[in-house]
Amino acid sequence: MTISVISNAQTTNGSGLTVWSPEKANAWYARHKWINGANFTPSTAINQLEMWQADTFDPQTIDKELGYAENIGFNAMRVFLHSLAWKEDPKGFKQRVNKYLTIADKHHIQTIFVFFDDCWNANAKPGKQPEPKPGIHNSGWMQDPGRPLVKPADYLALKAYVDDILITFKHDNRVLLWDLYNEPGNSNKNFKSAVLLTKVFAWAHAVNPDQPVSSGMWDWSLEDLNKIQFKSSDVITYHCYDSPESHQRVIQLLKISNRPVICTEYMARLRNSTFENTMPILKKENVGAINWGLVSGKTNTIYAWDTPMPDGSEPKIWFHDVFRRDGTPFNQKETDLIKQLNGK
Q1: Alpha carbons 233 and 138: distance in angstroms, whole number
Q2: pLDDT computed for residue 1 by the predictor
Q3: What letters, b where the CB count within 10 A reaches 16 and e where it falls short, cover 124-161?
Q4: How many whole angstroms separate alpha carbon 247 and alpha carbon 229?
């Protein structure tokens, strides 16, 4: 990878794409307290569409649950958008995004917004969303776009969506970071996702928002996708549900970039990735720490990826998530630790 320095503010990545220089990225990172928080979907939403569509947008629950996050010192949430919610109602969608940001800001929380996603179910449809399947992790989560993109018009439509959101919020300091594509190549798409991944980086860098843009590396076997993500990101983001020893090695490798490093997914208790054994490492290394899940709800992420419980009973050990809907923690020791790490 060849990077030539243009100025202290930007570099080219060898493919003609303008990215932030390491100096600019580190200056941005230094302006923030240690970034930590959760991936957030309100407990009343099964997926991104139910979160953002007008009929099911739930600011009361969002306000209540972000209050739980504020109380333990979380200062960032990672939140998935969906292009279909925008397509159905661009103006209303942006108003709801603004309403969400207003609520989050009240709780001193900045937001990482995610555009595209290759995980879980394809063929999302607007309107009423399915009910959760008992005991099945993310039974109703939807990919975005989740269908083959074969015509130039398909990409133009997605570009219009990305441009509209980025241009609307490019100077909004309530937005922390733009996460352009979640786990590209998942759902057996592999390198098929490279075209959209490359394009969304180009679209975002052309808009040149005040906030950095990134896409988190998640599968080290997808080398060609990882190269695109690594060289095109202003700050380095990644996912790691491994044990602390393996996670530490990932951190050491990614710090070679000389850019800020943020873990945008971790904490799966049954895989030996916990708050107790991983969050202190992330703080010590000054790596952002965004765990999966805040409040147990319709996404069913208290259940493990590959261990369904069809009777819907509560697992003895939750896979993800921190709080019950009433605000009581799954594990008081965990929330005590989080508060301690945040000086609360």
Answers
A1: 28
A2: 29
A3: beeeebeebeebbbbbbbbbbbbeebeeeeebeebeeb
A4: 19
CA distance 108 to 66: 9
**CA geometry: angle at 119 spanning 240 and 70, to 5°?**
60
- 22-50: per-residue pLDDT in tens? 999 999 999 999 999 999 999 999 999 99
Structural domains of the chain, ranges and CATH numbers in brackets: 4-341 (3.20.20.80)
User: What is the predicted pLDDT for the residue at 5?
Assistant: 33
Distance between CA atoms of 224 and 54, rounded to whole angstroms? 38
The pLDDT-based confidence of 148 (bands split at 50, 70, 90) is confident
Alpha-carbon 126 to chain mean position: 22
Sort 328 into a burial class: Cβ within 10 Å, 0-12 / 13-18 / 19+: exposed
Confidence of residue 8 (pLDDT cuts 50, 70, 90): low
* 11 pLDDT tier (thresholds 50, 70, 90): confident
DSSP 192-247: GGHHHHHHHHHHHHHH--SS-EE--B--TT-HHHHHHHHHH-SSEEEE--S-HHHH
Tokens of 34: 């240690």
* Amino acid, res. 180: L
